[in-house]
């Protein structure tokens, strides 16, 4: 069994770069090792947290418990028909490496999800999405170990209850399962999706035809131009979800804010852009000590170096308050607050 380390700093294990320690910390490379940790007294007598790439988490306090770091590796593919493949990836694989694997194998479906940080195992947690695609669109099933029993269960798409940045694992299943492996359906018959945002423009700028490879390149270029690289500036991507409001509320706001973005979200509701709302409150680029609202993307909160988790959290509360006062819209945090 891998050693259980005491008093481990988590600074290198979260993309906000928050410097907190965990009482206990253990990595696992195999399901067998994980089982051994689950059987240990330290695991059973302490609170537990499963950590992947730490790119969607904000630590606001010392972890008075055990952190399990997922290091399961392996990707395999099975052909299920002339054009369709099931690709299974272990939870500790880096998400973007899986996307590159798919492209290298001429398998389409996840190219729009290029460069999303983090590990495969966390991707179902919030049904990761970008540029018009969410993992629910290509998801087949996952295997997860139930912490209470040690049993490995298979979850179908229906059983995951995916929603916008939501799933069973972020709600009822929170803290109860360790996701071990995820299977996606990908295809050699590519259905290219260039409809979202600036993808078309970027392809034109690059002077290339759309393909799974060029769409991936375009998404990488767009993301790199506006999202901060966590290696240079601590962050966890969008800190808030984009809110859904009633059509009537949207129409009222539109009178004052004529360029308010709106995307259809059901019959009587509309999804608007939290980044726009935060910017209109005058908070884009706002900084208090080392906690800030990113200068290029107001939906992203950043750590300029020595911010504590609580300073970032307090800034998020200020953002929520200002957006509520200005627009009457309650923003919901997307990042997991620990
Ligand atoms: P972690 O931060 O390690 O964990 C997140 C949550 O999942 C925690 O609650 C953790 O306990 C739980 N968890 C992790 N692994 C497991 C497991 N194996 N079993 C059970 N629970 C587990 N997200 C998007 O959806 N779209 C984007 O476009 C996007 N862009 C981003 C851009 C940047 C610059 C950054 C920093 C983040 C972005 N994110 C985006 C958020 C983040 O990349 C995703 O949420 C990602 O899936 C998190 O993976 P992780 O391994 O880092 O998870
Ligand atoms: N906007 C502003 N000001 C800003 C930021 C955005 O006015 O500072 C406006 C833009 O002009 C645009 C709209 O808001 O009209 C949407 O902006 P953008 O395309 O940058 O996307 P987003 O809604 O801010 C969402 C996801 C991202 C995902 C991108 C691309 C959420 C919470 N965020 O961001 O996901 O990469 O779309 O699909 O849904 C994440 O979840 O961590 C994440 C980065």
Describe this entry's structure for a reader.
The protein is an alpha+beta fold and 338 residues long. The chain folds into 3 domains: 5-70, Uridine Diphospho-n-acetylenolpyruvylglucosamine Reductase, domain 2 (2-Layer Sandwich); 75-187, Uridine Diphospho-n-acetylenolpyruvylglucosamine Reductase, domain 3 (2-Layer Sandwich); 234-337, UDP-N-acetylenolpyruvoylglucosamine reductase, C-terminal domain (Uridine Diphospho-n-acetylenolpyruvylglucosamine Reductase, domain 1), CATH 3.90.78. It has helices at residues 31-39, 41-44, 95-104, 157-160, 199-206, 212-226, 247-256, 274-280, 309-327, and strands at 5-9, 21-28, 47-51, 57-58, 63-70, 75-79, 84-90, 129-130, 133-134, 139-146, 152-156, 177-187, 234-238, 244-246, 263-264, 269-271, 287-288, 291-293, 300-303, 336-337. The chain has a 5-stranded antiparallel β-sheet with strand order 6-7-12-10-11. The protein has a 4-stranded mixed β-sheet with strand order 1-2-5-3. Strand 8 and strand 9 form a beta hairpin. Helix 5 crosses helix 6 (212-226). The protein is globular and about 60 Å long. The structure holds flavin-adenine dinucleotide (FAD) and uridine-diphosphate-2(N-acetylglucosaminyl) butyric acid (EPU). The site of flavin-adenine dinucleotide (FAD) has 33 residues, from strand 3, strand 8, strand 12 and strand 13.
